[in-house]
Amino acid sequence: MRTLIHILLLGCILPLRTDWQLLAGVRLNTESGQLKTAQYAQHVDDLKYQRYRNVRFGYSFEYPKQWILNEALDGGGVSVAPNQGANLPRIGVSGFPVQASSTGKSRTLEEDFDSMMRAMQKKRPSHGIESFALVKKESAHVQGLPAIAYAMTYTRDGQSWVEEGLLVHDSHDAVAFNLGFDCRPDELAAFRTVFDKVIRTFRVASVPN
């Protein structure tokens, strides 16, 4: 459950520093959290990608090599971001064992999603999240595996944020994968471009390509 919450609250994964830094030649003020979106969107098309492989859960995906990757302490998940700083947009990918339901069997994808939403509602006050709303939920597939695509909006520290993602189960409902990103509304187009690449290149070693 802790892994789910960490990936959902992507901006709260790691204690990160706040200062002026460079992102692919674009100036980013991490104190105000404002990204020069038009310039950033232009540079997204020029990004070079490299593959990350997760040993614990056997998944991999491509991400911009110019971005910073941070791995969770338990080795199950990672976040990738264009820069380091507090309250910055980022993409997160994680794997975790599917927990048992009240019947003793592994939870279904739908049960796992409902559990994720309850955890989000319960934990949001402690993470400064307000006005949380689920605005999209639909069936999908990733690499032939069943998935639920979702989108949320919320307010954190007075700023509007958007989160989009996919909750994926393996064919045995034994391992789940969460792929998602959060960003401010004016950064949505640029982040979708990178996230689409993550989804297209996502692979699980136990599933034939």
Features of the shown structure:
209 residues, Protein Transport Mog1p, Chain A, 13 strands, seven-stranded antiparallel β-sheet, alpha+beta
Structure description:
With 209 residues, this protein is α+β, with helices and mostly antiparallel strands. The protein has a single domain, classed as Mog1/PsbP, alpha/beta/alpha sandwich (Protein Transport Mog1p, Chain A, 3-Layer(aba) Sandwich), CATH 3.40.1000. It is 21% helix and 41% strand. The protein contains 4 helices and 13 strands. It has helices at residues 2-8, 37-44, 109-123, 188-201, and strands spanning 20-23, 26-29, 34-35, 49-53, 59-64, 68-71, 77-81, 90-97, 129-142, 145-156, 159-169, 175-183, 203-204. The protein has a 7-stranded antiparallel β-sheet, with helices on both faces. A 3-stranded antiparallel β-sheet has the order 1-2-3. Strands 4-5-13 form a 3-stranded antiparallel β-sheet. Strand 6 (68-71) and strand 7 form a beta hairpin. The longest helix is centred in the middle third of the chain and has 15 residues, at 109-123. Residues 1-39 have low confidence and may be disordered.
Summarize the structure.
The chain is of the alpha+beta class and about 210 residues long. It contains four helices and 13 strands. It has one domain: 3-Layer(aba) Sandwich (Protein Transport Mog1p, Chain A), CATH 3.40.1000.10.
